[in-house]
């Protein structure tokens, strides 16, 4: 990471929003019935096959030697008429494995590589991670028919992927992390519609309210009179301009790769279709409505407060409305998984292992922070 600004990783939680967002609510009778129906429908599942730890070889500038660094394997599976590519991260054999799996969903225009570093940190904690390239993104199919790139299509496709990859099981629900635009909202809608399949949900810097708009690299496709039709996919600007820290050239190349070469136009067209088929304001409204129902999986927002695209106000309001808890990370921008994956993982790991006791959740009045975050809450 190359710093553009300086600062420490700290917590900011306005008292009123924090207290309102951390109330413990009992599941409604209707929600319990939905869970029961899902349990019956999903009891027969495909069990996930065994994976081995994967490593990358990287150059260590201190020693002048190549060294092995824990990474993820790239796998493939057919699901819902699509060929999916996905990354699987497995803990090292010396690390005690956690019982739950973590599903990681990227936003529009990016791909599963965005979770490479965050996944590594969670693997070190004992988690097995699954990060798919969503349809039209990365190395997954980019259909020109039969898939219209609407949120509903993404939602059903993701459910099909989970089944084919062997991570759909009400007896062993997954934890899910989402970030970015549109595809992340589709994943949140899937979790709200199928609460029995998910244990806990982490939301990292994704649009949550009417004040959250598309950034310019995506909004270009919504220009009036079709003026943005055929616009180039500016993934560099999308990934770079919302962050607090610069992204190294070799990392940026991973984000730009799907839009280069022979498959580049198909990827660009898929991104344009994803943006034009989904009205962001209507989509965030649908997510808020879906998550206002009681009895859904518990939600924690892990938010980079120096996000150049998304402000804090709508996040605080959403967290209060859906009874979500939240952690704010100062001096981190739109992609916490890139800016500070180690710190983001500490928040996420503490939440995934917590007992969710209200008394253990602290707050800081007026968002004034005077000490480092306490992850063990």
Fold and architecture overview:
The protein has 377 residues and is α/β, with parallel strands linked by helices. The chain has 13 helices and 12 strands. An 8-stranded mixed sheet has the order 4-5-7-6-8-9-11-12, sandwiched between helices. The longest helix is centred in the first third of the chain and has 14 residues, at 29-42.
- Which structural category do the helix and sheet elements fall into? alpha/beta
Helical content (DSSP H or I, runs of 4+)? 25-40%
Task: Report the count of strand segments.
Answer: 12
- Overall spatial form: globular
The average pLDDT value, as a whole number, equals 85
Give the percentage of residues in beta strands.
15-25%
Give the CA-CA distance, first to last residue.
Answer: 28 Å
The largest sheet is: 8 strands, mixed
Order of helices and strands: EHHEEEEEHEHEHEHHEHHHEHEHH
Q: What is the count of DSSP helices, taking H or I runs of 4+ residues?
A: 13
Spans with pLDDT under 50 lasting ≥5 residues? 1-48, 358-377
Strand ordering within the main sheet: 4-5-7-6-8-9-11-12
Could you tell me the radius of gyration in angstroms?
A: 20 Å
């Amino acid at each position: 990471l190359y710093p553009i600004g300086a600062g420490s990783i700290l917590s900011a939680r306005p008292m009123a929003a924090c207290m309102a967002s951390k109330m413990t609510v009992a599941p409604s009778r209707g929600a319990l019935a939905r869970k029961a129906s899902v349990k019956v429908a999903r009891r027969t599942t495909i069990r996930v096959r065994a994976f081995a730890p994967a490593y990358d070889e990287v150059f260590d500038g201190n020693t002048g030697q190549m060294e092995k660094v824990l990474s993820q394997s790239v796998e493939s599976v057919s699901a819902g008429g699509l060929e999916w590519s996905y990354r699987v991260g497995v803990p090292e054999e010396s690390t005690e494995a956690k019982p739950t799996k973590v599903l990681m969903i990227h936003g529009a225009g990016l791909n599963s590589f965005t979770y490479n570093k965050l996944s590594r940190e969670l693997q070190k904690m004992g988690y097995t991670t699954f990060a798919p390239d969503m349809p039209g993104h990365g190395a997954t199919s980019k259909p020109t028919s039969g898939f219209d790139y609407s949120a509903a299509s993404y939602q059903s496709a993701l459910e099909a992927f989970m089944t084919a990859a062997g991570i759909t099981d009400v007896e062993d629900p997954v934890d899910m992390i989402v970030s970015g635009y549109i595809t992340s909202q589709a994943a949140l809608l899937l979790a709200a519609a199928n609460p029995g399949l998910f244990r806990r949900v982490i939301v990292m810097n994704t649009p949550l309210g009417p004040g959250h708009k598309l950034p310019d690299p995506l909004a270009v496709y919504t220009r009036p009179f079709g003026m943005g039709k055929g616009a180039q996919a500016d993934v560099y600007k999308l990934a770079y301009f919302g962050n607090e820290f610069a992204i190294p050239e070799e990392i940026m190349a991973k984000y730009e790769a799907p839009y280069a070469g022979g498959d580049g136009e198909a990827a660009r067209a898929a991104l344009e279709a994803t943006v034009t088929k989904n009205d962001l304001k209507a989509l965030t409204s649908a997510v808020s409505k879906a998550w206002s129902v009681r009895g859904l999986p518990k939600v924690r927002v892990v938010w980079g407060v120096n996000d150049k695209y998304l402000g804090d106000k709508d996040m605080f309001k959403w967290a209060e409305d859906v009874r979500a808890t939240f952690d704010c990370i100062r001096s981190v921008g739109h992609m916490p998984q890139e800016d500070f994956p180690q710190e983001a993982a500490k928040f996420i790991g503490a939440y995934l292992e917590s007992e969710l006791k209200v008394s253990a959740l602290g707050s800081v009045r007026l968002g004034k922070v005077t000490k480092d975050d306490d992850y063990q809450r």
